[in-house]
What we know:
Elements: E1 8-11, E2 19-22, H1 24-28, H2 30-44, E3 51-55, H3 58-70, E4 73-79, E5 87-94, E6 97-104, E7 113-121, H4 125-136, E8 140-150, E9 164-170
Parallel strand pairs: 3-4, 3-7, 7-8, 8-9
Antiparallel strand pairs: 1-2, 4-6, 5-6
Amino acid sequence: MDLKQHIRTVPDFPIPGILFYDISTLLAHPKAWQAAIDQMAEIIEPMKPDILAGIESRGFLTAAPLAARLGIGFIMIRKKGKLPGGTVAHEYKLEYGTDVIEVQDNIIEPGQRVVITDDLLATGGTLAASCDLIKKVGGTVAGATCLIELTFLNGRDKIGDVPFESMLAYDS
């Protein structure tokens, strides 16, 4: 099945000049969505994770069903102020400013193998910050995955030596 046929592109969203790759159409097609989960599980399994971490918010859509499929736990990496209870924060640089992501404190056991998932890798800033945050709380980043990679933005370069796999690549 050609899963790219189930990814809708939306020009000029969220701002003019951006071509947005929308996974809503993939999620809405049961056979394509199941094929995507199957393929992502095959990518993740060799990384031998103890737990999956999904990046807010579309990363939750991939990480939660994949964790259930693999029989492991799932945690959320969220923007500041979105998680209840105590949290550990990590501030990172954006092109024009900074942002903060968080995980709940004590949600990851020291040395636990974590695979981070998201829907799309663009510039790599949020994924790199997520890797740093997982390391900060004592986890081992076993790998990272995304449904879609925009290869022309070179996001892989920002995550260094973390094993990374994407299911679909777009070169422009």
